[in-house]
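$ run holo --ligand "flavin-adenine dinucleotide" --emit tokens
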Amino acid sequence: MAARVVILGAGHGGLRCANALAPRLARRGAVTVVARENYFLYYPFLRDLVAGAADLTEVAFPLREVLDPRVRLVVGDLARVDAQGREARVRLPDGEERALRYDHLVIALGSSTAYHGVPGARESAVAFKSVDDALALRLRVLDALESEESGGRLSPDVVVAGGSYAGLEVAGALHDLLRRAHRVYGPALRARPPVIHVVEGERRLLGGMPDPIPEYVQALLRRRGDDVALGERVAAVEPGGARLQGGRLIPAAATVWVAGVEASPAVNALPFQRGKEGRLRVDPMLRVEEGVWALGDCADARVGGKEAPMTAQHAEAEAESVASNLVRALLGRPLLPYHHRTRGLIVPLGEGLGVAQVGRDRALLGRSAGLLWRAFHLSRLPGASRKARYVAGWMTGAPRQRALIRAPAFTFRASSRPPS
Ligand SMILES: Cc1cc2nc3c(=O)[nH]c(=O)nc-3n(C[C@H](O)[C@H](O)[C@H](O)COP(=O)(O)OP(=O)(O)OC[C@H]3O[C@@H](n4cnc5c(N)ncnc54)[C@H](O)[C@@H]3O)c2cc1C
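-- output --
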């Protein structure tokens, strides 16, 4: 009998797994993907949406275009999984529930923002994990800039809670947006340029990246006039700003919350065993139990005895590993443990600059890392026409031209959904 494979989630891991499985299963099974949205969000470019350097079509790709045509897509929210009955129930956009029977279940549901119980953070901060988040952040900053120019009371400063790579990516994107504003807005803004306050609980930025990367980033931010508060934590978030543990209140247009991730509510509700931070416990072959697999941010996977980093790079490598092990399981062949050597990490910092960790401990700083970031992600855009349009846009200055537009194309569904 042909195997029915249901994949929950169509992010970096789920999409890769579906596309790796579909051709290999061709006559041996059917692949169904469940996704909350009908598009694939390319997270590394979310910073460009904040900066106004990209529009939605360069950041989000219709799943029906990027999924292998043999894969069936069901757009809806996972309602529950019945492990004994081997059935996943999905709530469709019209509110109806659809049951999907499976022989193999692949869980690739990603992660959620962790607020650690900080008062006001969930309600008043902006996360950095969805199209809605990026657009909501842009709107808050652009509104504050207009207010400042008209003598209003909104502060255009921004607090970034968390100095890991996501925090520095968003700080860099905000710097690009504010730099553009600084050129074209009037005297009020020029007299007092907005400040980005990066608040990090540890004593160094980008924990885990080798020297001299953290020192370079800190010096760059300070040279730009940004405030880097190390060894400090945001203790409360209010609509008008953030209060630090020491009591200092920073008035701000927005507090961006990038201070941690945790298992999403959908993962918490699954009837399977948990590992670290509520993620699903998996064996070295990435199996949760017989016929159930987990990968990406929602899986507590190990590589070389250590925790696998929560990155797109690992989610995609785990997806390839699950796809080949699943086929091996169907053919009755022995399974292979997951292995992937981390290639490195590149963090864009704005103004075309960046930092990159290459391999275990080589560092690239400045323009070369910025270029590497853009070239690498450009190469990963699906389809030649998207790549060509992206390059043409940059060559003709389109990103600069749209940076400050507060238009319906950008306000599309912003803030319609509670933060993820
Ligand atoms: C702003 C940002 C920038 C990043 N930049 C980089 C980078 O440069 N390099 C890098 O390697 N990593 C980067 N990462 C990390 C990387 O994006 C994640 O580690 C990766 O996306 C994990 O893949 P995943 O498949 O596990 O989860 P995701 O890609 O998050 O996919 C999860 C999927 O599950 C769906 N889903 C969730 N709940 C439900 C539900 N209840 N019902 C139905 N569907 C559901 C979601 O809609 C989504 O499609 C970045 C992350 C962020 C937020």
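-- notes --
The two ends are 39 Å apart (CA to CA).
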